Amino acid sequence: MTDILNVKNLSIIRNDHSIIDDLSFDVQKGETLAIIGPNGAGKTTLLRAILGLIQYKGTVTWKRGVKIGYVPQRLFIENDVPLTTKEFFNIKQKDTTKIINVLEAVGLSGKSTELKDTEKHILNNKLGNLSGGELQRVLIAWSLLGDPDILLYDEPTSGVDIAGEETVYTMLEKLKKDRGLTIILISHEIEIVRHFTTTVLCLNKEKVCYGAPQEVITQKTIDKLFGEEVGFYGHNHKF
Amino acid sequence: MIIDNPFVLIIVSSLIAAASAYVGSFMVLKRMSLVGDALSHVALPGMAIAIAFGVSPIIGAFVALTVAIVGIWYMEETSENYPEALVGIFFTASLAIGVLITSEAELLEALFGSIEKMSLIEGITSGILSIFIILIARRYIKPLLISVVSKELALSTGFNMKKINLLYYFLVGVVVSLGVRFVGTLLMGALVVVPAASAKNISQSFKSYYLLSVAIGVVSSLLGIFIAKSLSLEIGPIVVIASIFMYLVTYVIKLVRGK
User: A122: which of A12, B30, B79, B125 is 20 to 30 A away, CA to CA?
Assistant: First the structure.
C-alpha cells in the first residue's frame, strides 16, 4: 500500500499553549481514519494543519498530485443570507449535470426524488433554509466536485439527529466504495467509529492510541482519553 | 471648474452609488456594516490635511483610509477575536481629531458632502474609478462569496484569502474616498450599507441581491438629487434619506411576504 499522507513530529503551539505535541501517523490509500478525542484535544486544529491552513512545526507530506475534499465543522448559515444552493455549487462548478451527479451521490437527488423536486427544495432554495442534515449532505456533495482522492470531514454528523447519523455513515461507506476514496474524519461517536473505520487515532494533545478500532478502543484507552466517567456509549450525553 | 452640468452630475453620482452598493453588498454579508460606517469617519482628518496642503480632499481621504484599512485587515488576520471595540475607539478618535483640525468653512462640506463643488476632473476620475471598482470586485466574486459561507472552505479551495481580503478592503477604501465628496464622511456609510441591507430584505438569491443592491443605490441617489434640487436642499443628506426610505419599503415587502 502507498502512503497518501505522512505526518511526522507535528507540533502546534498557539498563544504559548501546546495544542498538539510531537504527533506522527500516516494514512494509506483506501483507509478510513477516525480521529477521536475529547473537546479541546486538538482534533480540528490537526485537520487544519494537515490542510495547510495554519502554521505548525514538523512535516506534513501529501502524495504528489493528490486532490483533497474538505467539509468544515458546523456551518451556521442564517436564513437571510441571499445565496441559493445552486449559486453555492456554481462557485465551484457551472455544469448543472455535474452538480446533480454529486447530489445523487449524497442521496439528495435520484431514486425516489424527482429532479424538479431537487431543484425546488435544494438547488433553488437558500442555503440557510436547508435542514442540518441537508446542509451536511450539500457540503459533502460540494467537496466531491472536482473528484477528490481523499475526503477530510470535521464532525460529519454534527447538526444531524441520531437517526440521520447512521445514514450519513452508510453514505460515506458507499462513496468510499464507489469512488475509491480515502477518508479522514473527526468524530465523538465511538460506537460508529468502531463499525465504520479501518484505523483510529486517539488524540489528546498527543497520540493516546493508534491502530485498528477493535484493537485500540478498549475501556482503558477510553478512560485515558475522556476521563473515567465516560463509558463506551458516552456519545449519548451529547443529545 | 466645477460640475455644473446636471447630466454629468447624475452620471458621476450614479456610478459612485453603484460602486458603493456593490462593494457594500459583501460588507453586509460579511457582517461588517458597522465597520463600513465607522471607516468613513477616518477620512475626515485626511481631508483636512489635504485641504491645508492644497491637494484634492479625495486624495487625503484615500491616504487616511488606506492606513485604517491595513490596520483592520491586519487585526482580522492576526487576532482570534475581532477587536470590534478597538475599531470603534480608533474611528471615533479620528473623527474628533478631524473635526478639530478641519477649518470651519470646510467642515460642513466634509461632513455632509458637496458633490456640486467637485471639479470636472475629479468627477470624471471618480466615475472611471467607480467602474474599475465594480470590475475588480466582480473578478473576485467567487472567493468573496465562499468566505461568506466559511473562511476554512475558501482557504481549502486554494484561494489566498489574505490577499483577497486586503484587496477587498482596498476597494472599500477607494469607494469611501469617492463617496465622501458625494454625501460626506458622516453619511458615506449609508451609501455603502443601506442599499445592500435593503436588497437583502427581498432577495432570494445572490444574483438578485447584488443587482437589487446596485439598483437601489442608483435609484436613491437619483431620487435624492432630484428632490434636493427641486427643494434647494443639500444633496448628501437627502440622498441618504432617500436610501433609508427605500430600506423601509423593502422592509414592508419582507413583512408582507412573511405573512
Answer: B30
